[in-house]
Amino acid sequence: MQRPDWYPRLVNTFEIRLFGDPVLRQRAPEVTELDGDLARLVDTMIETMHAAPGIGLAAPQVGVQKRLYTYDIGEGPGVVINPEIVESSGEWVYDEGCLSVPGLSFEIVRPKLVTVRGMDLDGNDVVIEGDELMGRLIQHEIDHLDGVLLLDRLEKAARKEAMRELRRQVEAGTLGAMTDEDTGRRL
Ligand SMILES: [Zn+2]
After folding, report:
1. Domain containing 53 — which CATH number?
2. Closest CA to 104 of 154, 50, 48, 59
3. Rounded to an integer, what distance in angstroms lies between the CA atom of residue 83 and that of residue 68?
């Protein structure tokens, strides 16, 4: 059954912080306690990511200063706490977008294959070998945990142009508008 537009959503979601919010520019500290609060945070982040819709979401993007991100590239949702890239190789160009920089995407070259190590909510070791899209997602989300945005990965001229466009959108009050083409590229 298709829900009509007015049907209330019964899930809790966070507001996604956008470009210009200082929380996106800070390095998030490690998670030290795995408790019920953290489990609820992860649940709500997954709901927020699905509702956006996006395929990856880092805690600072919802204003939370903790080193963790959620993901779902179509194979079910997951979380990586205190993620660290332990290996990377190759090169891959991808038209990368960001939920915090909506409406814009950029062709960015990064390693193609990365291995991330972290833990899940139960404290078990998690190791994910991410190729192409998953590899990109891992690198993009860990950048968020370090206060880095995809704009920082652009060449100087492209970065300048992107910043100009973003400032224009902030002034016009149109930042946050998305097109259908963005769907699936949002990290
Ligand atoms: Zn992002």
Report:
1. 3.90.45.10
2. 154
3. 7
Q: Residue 180 carries which side chain, given as an amino acid letter?
A: D
User: Could you tell me the distance, in angstroms and rounded to a whole number, from the CA of residue 186 to the centre of ligand 1?
Assistant: 7
Two structure tokens written together for 90: 């190759």
Alpha helix locations (H) across the chain?
A: 36-51, 132-145, 156-172
Q: Are 57 and 45 in contact (CB under 8 A)?
A: yes
Indicate which residue of 91, 141, 161, 165 is catalytic.
141
The 10s digit of each residue's pLDDT in 144-174 is 999 999 999 999 999 999 989 888 888 888 8
> Is residue 107 a part of any domain in this protein?
yes
Catalytic-residue membership of 96: no
The verdict on residue 91 lying in a domain is yes
The pTM of this model reads 0.90
**C-alpha to C-alpha distance for 184 and 187, rounded to whole angstroms:** 8
Q: Are strands 68-71 and 78-89 parallel, antiparallel or unpaired?
A: antiparallel
